[in-house]
């Protein structure tokens, strides 16, 4: 039994000379396996504890950039991706109001913007609107400096066809998969979701595939 890479002090893949007794070597390996298992358990616990309603990573950085009070307010949780992406793509000034729609009682500002208590919801002054597909259309009408639709009527119809595909097929199978309790159901919904995503990707211009 020899020491592994680095044992010769060069880190060149060449094993070094024996430094430990077999018992000591076993103990070191056992300790490192135990440390690895403990670290993995800590990470799993942390991931389980992470509230699903909080942005993290790059999303958190974007959320922070839009935390200042603003006239256009987006009440959202990390699932509210479409509307959030549209606001970013259009470069609109907006306030990101992170909202936990599962909190009970539901947060008052969310209920004021959407009496159904669902995110995403948009508020602009005294006016408010919800349902992501409707909010997206509103944002397009509100500001067309960076349009999300092409101007050609046929291309636009084609976009609407695939938006319908997303609303009617991708989103429902995604939620069905999230809710599926047993492995067989999860398998069925995973396959359906993948097929629906594949159809969308295959229909896309090959430059964006
Ligand atoms: N069709 C709606 C769905 C909105 C929706 O179901 N939002 C979920 C989060 S993805 C929610 O707010 N759930 C809170 C609840 O059910 O209490 C849309 O596209 O905006």
From TrEMBL:
GO terms for cellular component: cytoplasm. The keyword Transferase applies. Residues 1-14 have a biased composition (Gly residues). PROSITE patterns: GST_NTER (PS50404). Residues 1-35 are annotated as: Disordered. Residues 67-147 form the GST N-terminal domain. Belongs to the GST superfamily. This is Glutathione S-transferase U2-like protein. The lineage of its organism: Eukaryota, Fungi, Dikarya, Ascomycota, Pezizomycotina.
